[in-house]
Write a structure and sequence with these properties.
This protein has about 575 residues and is α/β, with parallel strands linked by helices. The chain has a domain of about 300 residues: ABC transporter transmembrane region fold. Helix content is about 65%, strand content about 10%. A six-stranded mixed beta sheet has the order 6-9-10-3-11-12. It has a four-stranded antiparallel beta sheet with strand order 2-1-4-5, with no helix packed on it. Strands 7-8 form a two-stranded antiparallel ribbon. The longest helix is centred in the first third of the chain and has 50 residues. It is elongated and about 125 Å long. The termini are far apart.
């Protein structure tokens, strides 16, 4: 948790003054037993009503002042804890956004969400308790012990014996519960993941009638959390009984031995009551400490999880600050013997990939599921770095570009259509906030989205709900294509982005891209041979290896894997016709 203290720099005043006000309140609280002892010995013992009223007024004044200082401390603790949480949450979110895809895959979406929300909320509570109670509780324990020494040294030895025993109990509970709370936070990650999967895939769950299975899966995970929480709770539950037993035995000892001192004239009745009150203050303070132990134990686990993300370094780092000078005659994209592994071992997802794509050329990439198509195009904008070989854009290695410059050259349409809450216009302006409506309409026409957008009630001002839930799959895909076209990129990458379109719309889309994007280098990934057959060059992938490259007709003659794909989608007669046409 100390590593996160830097997020309190802006709140030094609150962190310093808050405990001071709380300590002042604690000082008033330590004075109260002495005032009570005076009332008993001097007021009641000597039947002095004036003394009783004066001392009673002093007690009220101490109470009012203590309340005022406590409220000021509470306000400062709230400001500091909320500010700390805001700063940390902002920093964590910003850090997540600079992490590479590898690190985000490793942590998992559900875990990152839990760390941004639940874990930081727990840390906010810890900061508030730190300012309000961490200083006050030990001060009351030590102060009460010192005040008891001022009253009677022999009876104060009871305090000296009780406090180490209580500290031992606190140490035992802390060491035993920390592993449980760490485990609970990990299980909460799994809960978030199960919930996320279930809600996103709600239609699939119902289609396969798997509601009971999902309920059982959630229940099993919840039961594991419950079991761990109960175990931690059983250990934590020992705190109050054990501390109460120790302190009540100490109070019994004070009254027992104090009675002899009163009989001998060494102590007064009021002083005995003061000693009992100080012991009760220690009891209450240590109950607070026991609760703080639980809070800080949970917070320690949360802090470790947050620090784990903050300390993670992106595997893909920006290595250039200036835009490099490109070569005019160089290929728009070049892969030179590229190897890539997700786990940085010999299990390559891509192996020995070499090809070029000229400016204005359309390149199709086809292959079976898991053949490495998406992995290949993810190397172009440096979402991942190649383990071996080199990827070049306009003749310059992608590592020599600043991220913004490299990705600014590209319009990327990912496999899963991702839209954001807002209007159609807002989504179209992601690449350029100042883009004109005319350019937006042109991009919509090319993407075959103009017709359905014009029929929407607000046109470009029509609202898109979160994740585009109010649109069909095909509509979302066409809008994401239009969004990429709006920035007028040099390189357009379409990652199976027409899979939800019917064949006629897909054909119209390809024709429009060929017509309107003649100057762009277009990379088309598709499972459909019909989608890539008219590309200038087709790359065939199988198990991460390039098993064929050429035009549609060339591959029909030379690549068995490509023929197999075509035979699964076209009739044998259509393929024979293509081949016979080539021979003619």
């Amino acid at each position: 948790m100390f590593k996160l203290a830097r997020y309190l720099k802006k709140y030094k005043l609150q962190v310093i003054l808050g405990p001071i006000f709380k300590l002042t309140e604690a000082v008033f609280e330590l004075i109260v037993p002495l005032v009570m002892a005076g009332i008993i010995d001097n007021g009641i013992g000597q039947n002095d009503e004036g003394y009783i009223f004066r001392s009673g007024g002093l007690l009220i004044l101490l109470g009012v002042l203590g309340l005022g200082f406590a409220l000021i401390c509470q306000y400062m603790a709230s400001v500091a804890s909320q500010g700390f949480g805001t700063e940390l949450r902002r920093e964590l979110f910003a850090h997540i956004n600079i992490l590479s895809h590898s690190e985000i895959d490793e942590f998992g979406t559900a875990s990152l969400i839990t760390r941004l929300t639940s874990d930081i909320n727990q840390l906010q509570v810890a900061v508030a308790m730190l300012i309000r109670l961490v200083v006050r509780a030990p001060f009351l324990v030590i102060g009460s012990a010192i005040m008891s020494f001022m009253i009677d040294i022999k009876l104060s030895l009871i305090f000296v014996a009780a406090i180490p025993l209580i500290a031992l109990v606190l140490w035992f509970v802390t060491t035993k519960t920390v592993p449980f709370y760490s485990g609970i936070q990990k299980k909460l990650d799994k809960t978030a993941n199960i919930t996320r999967e279930n809600l996103i895939g709600a239609r699939a769950v119902r289609a396969f009638a798997k509601q009971k299975h999902e309920q059982e899966r959630f229940k099993d995970n919840a039961d594991e959390i419950n079991t761990m929480a109960v175990r931690a709770g059983k250990i934590s539950a020992l705190l109050n009984p054990l501390t109460s037993v120790i302190l009540n035995l100490a109070i019994v000892a004070i009254i027992w031995f104090g009675g002899f001192s009163v009989d001998a004239g060494g102590l007064t009745q009021g002083e005995i009551i003061a000693l009992v009150n100080y012991m009760n203050q220690i009891l209450l303070a240590l109950i607070v400490v026991s609760n703080l132990v639980v809070i800080f134990t949970k917070s320690a686990a949360c802090a470790a999880r947050v620090n784990e993300v903050l300390s993670a370094e992106p595997s893909v780092k920006q290595t250039a600050d200036a835009v490099p000078k490109t070569e005019q005659d160089a290929p728009a994209i070049e892969f030179d013997r590229v190897f890539f592994s997700y786990h940085k071992n010999a299990e390559y997802a891509l192996e020995d990939i070499s090809f070029t794509a000229r400016r204005g050329e359309t390149v199709g990439i086809i292959g079976g599921t898991g053949s490495g198509k998406t992995t290949l195009i993810n190397l172009i904008p440096r979402f991942y770095d190649a383990d071996k070989g080199e990827v070049k854009v306009n003749g310059v290695c992608v590592k020599d570009y600043p991220f913004d410059s490299l990705r600014g050259l590209m319009g990327i349409v990912p496999q899963t259509a991702a839209l954001f809450a807002g209007t159609v216009r807002d989504n179209m302006r992601w690449g350029d906030k100042d883009i004109s409506d005319e350019k937006i309409h042109n991009a919509l026409k090319t993407a075959q989205a103009e017709e359905f957008v014009s029929k929407m009630a607000g046109g470009l001002d029509s609202e898109i709900v979160r994740e585009g839930k109010n649109l069909s799959g095909g509509q979302k895909q066409r809008l994401t294509i239009a969004r990429a076209l709006c920035r007028e990129p040099e390189i357009l990458i379409l990652d199976d982005s027409a899979s939800a379109l019917d064949f006629a719309t897909d054909a119209d889309l390809r024709a429009a891209i060929k017509r309107d994007c003649a100057d762009m280098t277009v990379i088309i990934i598709s499972q459909r041979a019909n989608t890539v057959k008219n590309a200038d060059k087709i790359i065939v992938l199988s198990d991460g290896k390039m098993v064929g490259m050429g035009t549609h007709r060339e591959l029909l003659s030379s690549c068995a894997e490509y023929c197999e794909i075509c035979l699964s989608q076209f009739s044998a007669g259509e393929i024979e016709k293509e081949l016979s046409y080539e021979e003619e």
